[in-house]
Each structure stands twice: as structure tokens, then as C-alpha cells.
Amino acid sequence: MKILGWLLGGMALLSVRAFCDPLPPPTVIFSRPLPNANLNEISQPSRSNYAFTEVPQGDPLAFQSFDGDDFSLSQTSDEYIVQSISTWSVASNLGQALGTEFSTVSLYMRPVFIDPVTHARSPAAPFQKIATGAPNQAFNQDGVTVGNSNPDITHTNIKYFGGQNYEGVGTPGTFFPLWQTTFNNLNLLIMNGALYEFAVWGLGYQTLCSGTDNQCMDPNTLYGYWFNEYSNAALSGTTQQGADNFYLKFSASDLNAPTTFISASPKPVDLNVTITGAVNIPEPATCGLLGLGLISLGYFFRRRSSGS
Questions:
Q1: Region 246-255: what's the mean pLDDT?
Q2: In sequence order, what are the residues at sequence separation of 6 or more whose Cβ sits closer than 8 angstroms to the Cβ of residue 195?
Q3: What pTM does this model have?
Q4: Cα–chain-centroid distance for residue 85?
Q5: What secondary structure letter does DSSP report for 235?
Q6: If we measure between CA atoms, which residue out of 245, 214, 249 comes closest to residue 52?
Q7: How far apart are CA 137 and CA 209, in angstroms?
Q8: Per-residue pLDDT tens for 217-228?
């Protein structure tokens, strides 16, 4: 019975890649958007928007951990096909394409098991790199979008409500560009009510700066460090679905490692994210199911069988 409970937990956390044709038209099915109130240093006591990184300032080549958050779809269907995930980040230099700072940008996801008795959280499977690609080093003709070596990833240089860039915390008058990164055509089958952890993370060029080379990491300016954008739900001025005043820290060296919960830096925030998709209408004759769900099921079964 205990093993059956674990297997049912694994099935409840099913997240698979669904290849179905045609896919339903997408709509927003999860919304924790950018804040539109209490922005930047001018409202510092009640500031809503923040950006954080996990790389130690003294070691520009380190990649020890990365930040993210979680989501659960609890709407009107048993399962959804997630077609895109968008998050936002803050880069170092205004007017430069994202690819001059970052060599790759990736989306990671894993299902999470919630113990029905203790309510403790543990990974149902290791993190999977769902999508990755290298952002281009020049803007497109529109002057605001940047392509990627992966055609399903787009980067758009945007501004907050009212036309503001991101103002540095503690550095009033110093502004940084805000980027929206969208991972398209994901076609992930996500179960209603299951919890998924995710992270979007970019890696800077793995060389120290020298001469005129700008494809590098600068330990003084933090050039080349990925800063996800977060907001405090109560101050954001927008409805922040799934906000719990925690963001999450994950180990980069052990993708099976448990989650670390971060509740205040300098105040409780959640990672801003929007997800588009549609209710899944299974077509057994035309759909093949692969991916995180099968991985998580095998992972649970292997761990329980070995007695670990």
C-alpha cells in the first residue's frame, strides 16, 4: 500500500511532453505578472520590485545555485497543455542585446511530491532542462527583440508600467534594462493540482574580462550574472496568482537536492511568471506521451524498490 501511495503520488505529479496535432488555442492559465505599483527607489519603503542573483560576487565563474519558484494549475480541467512560459530578468547595460552578456538561457522544471501526512516537499524527479538556447548578440530590426539559437525562445527588452526601467536597490538614479524571456511551443502536459518547481537561468561567458572583450564576466559590475525579477504580492498592484511570499533556491551541482525557501531579501517576494496553455483533449491515436512524468514515475519506483 505504501508503494502504491508513492506511485499514485508520482502519477498525480505527471508532467509529460504531448505531441498532439492540432493543439488547442492558448490562453493565459497562470498569471503572476510584473508589478505596476510601488516601483523602484522612489517608493523604497513600499517598493514592490526586486531582482536577485545567486552567484557569489567574489567568484565570477561560479555557478553554485540558481533561483526559481513554483506553480500549480487548479482550474477547470484534469490536465493542461502548457505552451509557453514567460519570466523577466534584469541585465546590466542599457542598450545592449542580451547575447552580449549571456551565452545561454535555460528553463528548468521538475514535479514535486507532497507527503500527505507530513506535508513535507521533496523532488519527484531531478530537474530537467526543458529548453535552452543562446541569445543573439544584436537586436532585431524592431530594436527591442533579440532572437535565440533556439527559435522557440524569444527575448524582448521591455519597461515597467509607466515606461520605467529597473532602478537599482540602494543606487537611486541608476537604471538597468528589463527583459522578458518566453519559452514557446513547450507542449507540456501538466496535471491539475500537481506542484511544479521551475527556474529560468542564464549563464554568462566563462572568461574574465580583458581589453575590449565584452563577452565576459566582470566581478566588479556583476556583468554576466542572471538576475530574475520578483515582486511583493501585496505591493505589486496586480493579482499575483500562487504568491506565497517565498522564492526558491536550487542546487546547480545536485539537481536532486531539496528546495531551499527564501522568504525575505529584503522583503518577501515571488518570481513573476505567466503561463499560457489550454485544456488538454486527449487523442490516443495521435498523441505520444514522454518526458518528466515518466521520468518521475520511474524515479519514485526505483528509489522505493532500493529502500532509499
A1: 89
A2: 13, 70, 71, 72, 111, 112, 114, 121
A3: 0.82
A4: 8
A5: G
A6: 249
A7: 17
A8: 555 555 678 899
Phi, psi of 135 (to 5 degrees): -65, 145
Q: First and final CA of the chain: distance in angstroms? A: 17
Other CB atoms within 10 A of residue 6 CB: 18
Q: How far is CA 303 from CA 1, 115, 123, 299, in A?
A: 16, 15, 12, 6
Residue range 261-275, pLDDT digits in tens: 988 767 899 999 999
Alpha-carbon span 40 to 164, nearest angstrom: 9
Q: Beta strand pairing status for 79-90 and 227-231? A: antiparallel
Place of cell 551565452: 103
Q: What is the pLDDT of residue 23?
A: 60
Confidence tier at 210 by pLDDT (50, 70, 90): low
Domain ranges of the chain: 17-287
How many angstroms separate the Cα of 17 from the Cα of each of 28, 120, 188, 291? Answer: 19, 27, 5, 5
Q: For the segment 90-137, what is each residue's pLDDT rounded down to a tens digit?
A: 998 889 899 988 989 999 999 999 888 888 888 998 999 999 999 999
